[in-house]
Design brief:
By secondary structure, the protein is of the alpha+beta class. It has two helices and seven strands; from the N terminus they run βαββαββββ. Strands 1-2-3-5-6-7-4 form a seven-stranded antiparallel β-sheet. The chain is globular and about 45 Å long. The model has no long low-confidence stretch (mean pLDDT 91).
């Protein structure tokens, strides 16, 4: 994580799964984060998820060599950013965060069953209701994926 601006070790806030569900609309089986740490309100956060061997997608991706689909990893980063942004919204009950774009996605190493992944996101910029983030995913301290992505805040 050495290329990120923020080197903060203290967290402003740690959100559990129930608090996350109040901020983003995702639910099982499409909620891919279990805990989220807000490092800097509206700007920086990290979340975690253990991908157990019983996950539904391992059945077909791939039966003899199961790996977490890249799109799930990107979605996990986006959900983390969605929580970071939503937690900062004044009236988040009337607003929603919608994915807009994915850029510069790179998958460095496969994510296997029972890996605990840390998703780190940092705001690049915010223009009106559009937020652009950089995200990285780590297994232990090893970078497994990274991407830039943007989302728009809309009325529900």
């Amino acid at each position: 994580m050495e290329d990120f601006k923020y080197k903060i070790k203290q967290f402003m806030m740690i959100l559990n799964i129930d608090q996350i569900k109040k901020l983003i609309p995702h639910r099982k089986p499409f909620l891919f984060i279990e805990e989220c740490k807000i490092i800097e309100k509206g700007k920086v956060g990290e979340s975690f998820r253990t991908f157990y061997e019983s996950e539904y997608f391992f059945e077909g991706h791939f039966p003899e060599n199961p790996i977490v689909p890249g799109v799930v990893i990107i979605e996990s980063m986006a959900q983390t950013a969605g929580v970071v942004v939503s937690e900062n919204l004044v009236n988040n009950n009337d607003q929603s965060v919608l994915f807009m774009s994915i850029n510069k996605a790179k998958f460095r190493k496969p994510v296997l069953p029972n890996y605990k992944i840390k998703f780190y996101v940092e705001l690049i910029n915010n223009i009106k209701n559009v937020y652009k983030f950089m995200g990285k995913a780590y297994h232990n301290e090893s970078l497994v994926a990274e991407s830039e992505f943007s989302a728009m805040i809309t009325s529900k």
